[in-house]
Amino acid sequence: AEWRQIFREAWRGLRDHFYDQDMRGVDWVRVRKDCEKLLPLISTRNELTDLMREMACYLGCSHLYVDNPTEEDDGEGYQGFLGADFKYESEVGWVITKMVEGDAWDPRSCGPLATPGLNINVGDAVTAINRRALTEKTYTIYDALAHMAGKEIFLTVSTKTVKKKKKKKVTVFTPKTVRVKPCSEEVERAARYRDWVEGNKKKVHDITGNRVGYVHTPDTEHYGFTEFHRYYLAECAREGMIIDVRGNEGGYASELMLEKLMRRPIGYCVPRKGRGVRQSYPQHALCAGAIVMLTDEHAGSDGDILSYAFQAMKLGKLVGNQTWGGVLTMGIHDTYLVDGGENSVPCEGFEPVFEKVKGEGLENKGVVPDVVVVSLPGDATDRQLDVAIEEVLKLVSGASSLGGSEGTSLGASPQRGGSSLGTSLGTSLGSSSSGTSLGGGSGKGSIF
């Protein structure tokens, strides 16, 4: 009787609050009757969840999830991770081939072996955990870390040093034992994410000669909004910008991010002191307006909308792969079941107004980039980022040829002796070459 009540409550929640009153053309009563016939045949809560998911599939839309009752935990006691890649060598043990650093100051995103004071480096070998020797097959490093997340262990490491003996270089491994607390999968993933972002930023800076900035936003919720500003406030002073929204899981803050991307300087505040460093007005404006957004098939929900808005408002070039295609809103009318289970209810749709997708919508379609680049699993390099760098350099070169590169950096010394502060691209009130004109023209975006 309880399972029947749960099933009908989930069905009613969708009937009463689904964003489309016509249920996308589905006979919702008929669906309930057909699925309800299977209720006497199920024997576990998981089977009930499967049945409700089958029912939800008839609607063929995104943001429709059916979850089992779960108990929240912090991951302690799960598989432990050391924030490193290993390779077994019979002579020394499990050799560290790569160490994850993350944010050393934040225990929520720091690789355990990168903790200050441990003095463990790539090339060192882990030989034992909790005084028990590791082997290649019967007792691997992964076996030893089972159920160790959040628990302190004794880690025996052979530290690699190179010494000279009789004019020859000899590699010597010196054992030592340290205390380490393995992290959960979530913490290691966060640390690896930080290293990935920092690696991408360094690559963009190196290739472009520090002319182009890089920002990645993992979602558009509070975490993604924080990540956006962690990098954007420093990177926006450069001549160009790559906004990477690949893997963006969505949220609700895309409007606030777009507001920053639309800003163009209409003037500069120039102090007498402080080495003459000037600040754009409005603050955090993109000086040259050369922007490329990088997206892919894993960018969805508000990540879809962010990609769509960037392209539709002509803020720059959209590069990457077609987005996920799920732009419904859930959360307001989700159904919380009597046994602790939960069903999401898509309660709002998204209707685009620009002609390119008007009438079709983004749901189940997504956004097709201006420059399509498909990233394959076997690619040795990040092809999408490489193409994004090429495209943004074209925009930067075009901006420089139109308005000159002089004075485009916020950190540049101001022009004195009567010369105007508005000589850089887009700062002239009468210019319309980059869409920053206050006086009309075919502008590409709002100044504010």
TrEMBL record:
Residues 180-374 form the Tail specific protease domain. Its main location: cytoplasm. Keywords: Cytoplasm, Hydrolase, Protease, Serine protease. Residues 401-436 have a biased composition (Low complexity). Residues 401-448 are annotated as: Disordered. Residues 437-448 have a biased composition (Gly residues). One of its GO terms (cellular component) is cytoplasm. The keyword Protease applies. InterPro entries: ClpP/crotonase-like_dom_sf, PDZ_sf, Tail-specific_protease, Tricorn_C1, Tricorn_PDZ, Tricorn_protease. It is found in: Cytoplasm. This is Tail specific protease domain-containing protein. It comes from Paramoeba aestuarina. The lineage of its organism: Eukaryota, Amoebozoa, Discosea, Flabellinia, Dactylopodida.
